[in-house]
Amino acid sequence: MFRFIRYALIIGSLSLAFFLLAPLAGASECSFFLWDQLVPDQDVLTRASACRAESESQIEAFALPSEFDDTLFGRRVYARLADNALVYPEPSRGVAPVRNVGDGFLFATVNSWDEVNGATWYQINHGEYVHEEDIQLVTVSDFQGVEVLRQPERPFGWIVQDVQPSSQPDGESNPSYAELPRFTFFEIYDAAIGQDDWIWYDIGNGRWIRQTYVSVVDASPRPDEVGPDEFWTEVDLYEQTFAAYEGDRMVYATLISSGLNRWPTREGLFQVWQRFGEYKMSGAEGKVDYYFLEDVPYIMYFDQLNSIGLHGTYWHDRYGYKHSHGCVNMPILDAEWTFNWSADAPNDLWVWVHTSDATNIFN
Q1: DSSP per position, 261-325
Q2: N or C: which end of the chain has fewer CB within 10 A?
Q3: Residue 32 CB-density burial (10 A; 0-12 exposed, 13-18 middle, 19+ buried)
């Protein structure tokens, strides 16, 4: 896909067409038509017809994925354990604990819970119970990316921080525009360099947003090592985005969280070498960054040197920002899609990790 500078705003309403994805920010003059109130003017009717045609084609560009019958999403209950929480062999503090979980970033899968003498006890494993004071249930993110049904015509992405658009680059927030919440999907129609070299994106209807509020996906050429029919994925460390490809065609995209600066995700071209539907992950035992995560879903290890993988994530919702200990954290629904899609690949799944240059949008 070509990248662009000063891309002309096309006629077509993304806000009407892309109702499958909500909320959506992309739009053009078509969004101002009320189809049941058009005056019988031939020019207006011609423009309306063009808008409908563009809308129908855009519906075919992106779609929310269908749910898998055997999905793990919504079928597991996860919880964070307090530092030095005591685990008991039965739901009672009147017996000796079986272990102390230690101090760290500790999460468990909850099998069941019961009210005993006015307190809730959570069973995390067979014969292991934790008192309600030492455990906190987590809310799993239901964010999900998009299937890309045909090669995208322009860059697209998601809002990663609530923002009210401006009417021009470097402009103040325009109160006439609705605030766009985190995870709003949009397409980019134009771009400009503003003050301090920040890039501003035109997302339609005259709305401009500075790059610091968004994460962007733009189709990349296939790495030389990847065959024309092979499956590969792209992890963009700058944008904190993920895209999946079959040969030269993008088929999926979403947000991710890669390694924090202390534990950066290594760049390079890798291949998935080990896969688990669910498995525990742990590391840095005895250190301040010790972590233990039970039943991490949809793991695809690719960097064998550092035991780094793509995987579903239930313990945070910071997609679009670095947040991990080195792995590529994905929303569970996106990791599930990637896990199932790549199982049918004609090759071991390629994973290309790199840092993009946002100014390439002008090339």
Answers
A1: TTSPPPPEEEE--EEEEEEEEEE-TTSTT-EEEEEEEEEEEEETTTTEEEEEE-S---TTS--BS
A2: C
A3: exposed
Please state the rounded mean pLDDT for residues 338-362. 93
Least confident of 258-262, 281-285, 299-303: 281-285
Contacts 24+ apart (CB under 8 A), 54-58: 54/10, 54/11, 54/12, 54/13, 54/17, 54/30, 55/12, 55/13, 55/16, 55/17, 55/30, 56/17, 57/12, 57/17, 58/12, 58/14, 58/17, 58/18
Cis bond upstream, residue 23 (ω within 30): yes
Residue 236 inside a domain? The answer is: yes
Structural domains in the chain (count): 3
Question: How would DSSP label each residue in 88-151?
Answer: BSSS-TTS--SEE--SSEEEEEE-EEEEETTEEEEEEETTEEEEGGGEEE-PPP----EEESS-
CB atoms under 10 Å from CB of 163, counted, come to 21
What is the three-state SS of 310-343? EEEECCCCCCCCCCECCCEEEEHHHHHHHHHHHH
Alpha-carbon distance of 92 to 121, in angstroms, equals 8
Among candidate residues 95, 19, 109, the one with its CA nearest the CA of residue 58: 19
**CATH number of 310's domain:** 2.40.440.10
Dist CA 68 CA 155 (whole Å): 28
Could you tell me if 255 and 108 lie in one domain? no
List pLDDT tens digits, range 189-243: 999 999 999 999 999 999 999 999 999 999 999 999 999 999 999 999 999 999 9
Whether residue 2 is predicted with pLDDT greater than 50 in this model: the reply is no
Distance from C-alpha of 225 to C-alpha of 223, rounded to nearest angstrom:
6
Cβ atoms of 224 and 254 within 8 Å: the answer is no
Same domain, yes or no: 212 and 322: no
Q: Which domain covers residue 190, as residue numbers?
A: 14-60+153-217
The reply to whether 142 falls in a domain is no
Please state the pTM of the whole predicted model. 0.84
Cβ pair 17, 55 in contact under 8 A? yes
| Residues 89 and 120 reside in one and the same domain | yes
